[in-house]
Fold this sequence. Notes:
Blueprint: E1 5-7, E2 14-18, H1 23-35, E3 37-43, H2 49-60, E4 64-68, E5 71-77, E6 89-90, H3 95-105, E7 111-115, H4 126-134, E8 138-143, E9 149-156, E10 160-161, E11 164-166, H5 172-182, E12 185-186, E13 188-192, H6 200-207, E14 212-215, E15 218-222, E16 231-233, H7 238-250, E17 254-262, H8 269-276, E18 281-289, E19 292-301, E20 319-320, H9 325-328, H10 332-339, E21 344-348, H11 361-371, E22 375-379, E23 382-387, E24 395-397, H12 402-412, E25 419-422, H13 434-446
Parallel strand pairs: 2-17, 3-16, 6-7, 10-12, 11-13, 20-21, 24-25
Antiparallel strand pairs: 1-25, 3-5, 4-5, 7-9, 8-9, 13-15, 14-15, 17-19, 18-19, 21-23, 22-23
Helix pairs in contact: 1-2, 1-6, 3-5, 4-5, 7-10, 7-12, 10-12
Amino acid sequence: MPKQLKISPVQGLQGEVSLPGDKSISHRAIMLSSLASGESILHNFLQSEDCIATANCFREMGIQIKFEGDKAFVVGKGLQGLFRPSKTLDVGNSGTTMRLLSGMLAGQKFESQITGDSSIQKRPMKRIIAPLSLMGAKIEGIQGAKNEIFPPLKITGTKLSGIEYNLKVASAQVKSAILLAGLYAGGQTTIIEPIQTRDHTERMFGFFGINLTRFNREISIEAPNDFVGREIFVPGDISSAAYFIVSALIVPNSNITIKNIGTNPTRTGFLQVLKKMGAQIEIADEEVLSGEPRATIKIRKQIVATQNLVPSAGLKGIEIGGEIIPNIIDEIPILAVLATQAEGITIIKDAVELRVKESDRIKTTVSELKKMGADISEKEDGMVIHGPTKLKGAKIQSYGDHRIAMSTAIAGLVAESETIIEEAACIETSFPGFEARIQQLITNSLYI
Length: 448
């Protein structure tokens, strides 16, 4: 039977919470450490199902990877050191692994096949195949409607050539796939972004000593001869922190401190949105380590009463769209939860990319929050939420999507009765220990 997660309403959340490593950075750290020469040590590596899938793919290609506590030890064999895998590479539920690994595999000297679970096999891949094909890549997949291509993919490694490419979609995954292919391409590879997306790949290239230049939205690299292993300190994942930040903003009498959270400017659009909604958030202890900025985040919130007697988080509804959307794409489901407790109307637009995530996150966010009594409606590229609304407990379907499961769990903390989330095991793909951390904050509040 799929795991259920049961959440009851609470009167407060108190304490300090440490979060596992950033998922995006953990993926890239494994990949580049595997392509480097010599050992890399990754501290605070996220041992989620998605990141373990990335590690297992490289193990299949001859890379030694072991885990001790929250550390990963990777013995890289250099850019030309990978072996042909003896079986199909399986990315599980990780779209990041599927897309980024495809770019890297395109430049190898061997043929490979790559697949994933039923959700991954519905994810569109033409967006990476098109630019990689211009570089000379040979990638085949399952033909779908409207000339779309889906996994499993067969990749015949070949010699690649650098290109100049204007990204059609603002996507860090597509950009990163091209950059990883660029490590094996002759000449210069240049990418022009329509909107700046998260830059973890570029920062990690720089940290490993790979020559990369950026001018405005234009990024260029030339294939290096080689690069060596490094010691990498992975910050906590701000996308994971988002659930605890929102919980502190909507649960009465909460006081939460979150340390060592990544504050990369291409990922902090979530904090910018919260400030526009009126949230009071303290950021302290800022530093840069392993090329990535990080800080401590503190939230102390008292809930205020409103004229219609529905408790309010003291926040106001706003319009969210445009250039900030790629920066907050993973946080939109939890932002929708927050909007149900804000005064007025929140409009989320320009987010059609949500329809091709682990689930159609526009449809699933709207359908599940409606079950809880939210005044929320679906639009083609987003959603409209009226607040504040008193939520009620409900039986929630996660659709196998970790972000839907975690977002509705946070909503359950302020619902009138118990919330039951079906298929909650999907949370392990990105955030092992999620439930335990919530319970610890609840337990702490009982002794205040």
